[in-house]
Specification:
The structure is a single chain. The protein has helices spanning 22-54, 61-86, 105-114, 117-145, 151-169, 175-226, 231-259, 262-267, 269-278, 296-317, 353-361, 395-402, and strands spanning 284-289, 322-329, 332-339, 366-370, 377-384. The protein is of the alpha+beta class. It has 3 domains: 22-173, no CATH class; 183-259, Single alpha-helices involved in coiled-coils or other helix-helix interfaces; 262-384, Histidine kinase-like ATPase, C-terminal domain (Heat Shock Protein 90, 2-Layer Sandwich). A 5-stranded mixed β-sheet has the order 1-2-3-5-4. Helix 1 packs across helix 5, helix 2 packs across helix 3 (105-114) and helix 9 runs parallel beside helix 10 (296-317). The longest helix has 52 residues, at 175-226.
Amino acid sequence: MTMSPSLPDPDRPPPPRFAFDRWTWKEIAFLLANLPMAIVGFVYTVVLVSVGAALSITVIGLPLLALGLQGARGLGRAERGRARKLLGVRIEEPSPMPRGRRGQGFFSWLWSGLKDPVGWRALLYAFIRLPWGVATFAVALVSLFVLWPVLPYLARGLANVDRAMVRGLLPPSDELEHRIAELESDRGVVVDTAAADLRRIERDLHDGAQARLVALAMGLGLAKEKLTDDPEAAARMVDEAHGEVKVALQELRDLARGIHPAVLTDRGLDAALSAIASRCTVPVDVTVQLSGRPAEAIEGIAYFTVSELLQNVSKHSRARSASVDVWRSGERLMLQVMDNGVGGARLDGGTGMAGLAERLDAVDGLFVLDSPEGGPTTVTAELPWRDRLPAGTGAGAERAGAA
């Protein structure tokens, strides 16, 4: 059995040799540039910390320090770029500084800036670099004229120390920092989705039940006026109003079902999904295998996810049958909706798939679409399993107890 030799990585310097290759010259350039960069970083750090500490008793000290930490992020970005070009050290850029909570304004921004770990580590990096910058500059400069034969080895050894310092102090904080950035984005999705839902409810109420009830009130008013003069006409108008009341009640029931169906609250996912499956235009086989019930929020997201997917089956799939499977796997609630339609569904296809994926992502969920042309279409979704609070606990129970 033979193995092909591995290809060299263009971003990783080869072992040092007596010959001066491009990586040797890059490392020498980095070492010579250490001194001016170290002076700039050291002066910036000393001035910022000194002035910020001296003025901390005034109203401008702490905001100045917070702004200075954002500037330190810029120094760190420059050093990462220099190390990337000259040393082949590729470090992912930290996420932007998280914003303060909505509505908290200046003080939230100030607190976020003062506790920024990326900025503080960049300041530490700049502070400790001055003696190292002097040493590496001197060694590299002298070696160019005195220790020329061993300069590649000296440059590699000194550059490796720089690589370790960059990797140790200038990368993103850790996975938690990226998670914070994701949650910031997800929170925006949740807020936008909630606002869109509220607008939809307002529109449905205004254009549907509210308009119908206004017309009903006017019709009953006219019937009241005709009650003595034309009883038969008044009776017809009351009969029409009775029909309008039934329609308005049905619209309100549909609206309430769109907010949170009563069958889901009372009987859980099995009954609720069976109810929406019965309204689908194709036969749907529903299988729910759950030993308990997840938290209400997770249960609601699962319900509306399946509801929208079955609506897509009815409108777009041209399927003859479909299936819905729900089960628990460890700490995840699993959903799978399949149909034997024409396939070709895409996340950017205008069928609401992208919105579903965003909603699930906002609660740490996953959304996977498999829909080749010609079918079948399979959508698999995962949600975190969060246990339902026992009856009589939570904010509602506390309010009831207080009352």
